[in-house]
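Thread title: Can someone regenerate the structure for this chain?

I was given the following input by a collaborator and told the matching structure tokens would be attached. They weren't. Posting the sequence so someone can regenerate them.
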Amino acid sequence: MNVNVDSLRGVGPTQGRAGATVRSESGRTPPAGTTPGGLGRSHAVSVRSPYRLDLTASVLRRLSTNLVDVLTPDGEYVRVLSGIAGPAIVRARQVGPDTLAIAVEGDARDHAAALATARRVLGVEIDLRRFYRSAARVRWLWPLVRRMRGVKPPRYPTVWEACANAIVFQQISLIAASAIMSRIVVALGQCRERDGVRLYCFPGVEQVQGADDATLRAAGLSAGKLATLRRVGDTIGSGVLDEAVLEEHSTPAAAALLRGIKGIGPWTAAVILLRGLGRLDVFPANDTSVGRNLAFVRGSAPFDLEAVLDALGPDRGMLYYHLLLARLEARGDIGRASVERRA
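Best answer:
Regenerated them for you:
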């Protein structure tokens, strides 16, 4: 499969007041529910500054080879979201220090939900002033935080997607896990064609639970991870566990609920809460890559992880995102356009 992100470029919307419909380049504002020329509806969305879409999208997708979260060469973030009437394409572009232009293409019935999801996924309303004050007191961390100023904590659209990613990424390298996830997405994800390019929607619980074991094992899932994914799918699919249930609980209680599922340990539960529910008061420790990234960032500086986490307090989860950014920066993968690849 060839993914040529150049063809994903759409007409860039112009800046307007927050929450307003923005006119297309043609100067016409389409009536509600219409998608003339495939451009869809576009809105100017205020973001809490400082904000950088390139950094936020980079920590969301992890690697530029991610087939679900796409960055175009001109810095536009593109993603397909599932909806009631079918897939909806969301395109986000930063048009000012405190403004994103977010366009939604798809059935009008899914427009409002897709826009709300995009806002949450991209963390537009998160206030990180407290984190910046705390990070400034950690001498070895502050230079990195200052370089990455504007990154917001992104969230997966659903708890299911957070769980699936956390399970796949357990105890293997970032590159290996990303390759496995890409194969799962290609095998099971719903596609949407745009300008001859396939955009993939992350496969839902029904798609994964309906797939045979051979398909998932062929993608690279171990027997243990496959079993865990099935158990999580059963729990979410039956309604026993969902976002509303987790939101009702404190972070320790929510983590305990997740750890009650066989195959989900402290690290996996922390990643799910951080990436799926936006709980910044967790830090996924006990990970060899975290240890390597900490050593890479701090160099020879004196180090006490517990003291650093105490200093960052309820915003300690931002350390996880900054360590990831340090790794991506070293690889030249921050803001990098989604590469052309074959799956």
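The chain has two domains: 5-125, 159-330.
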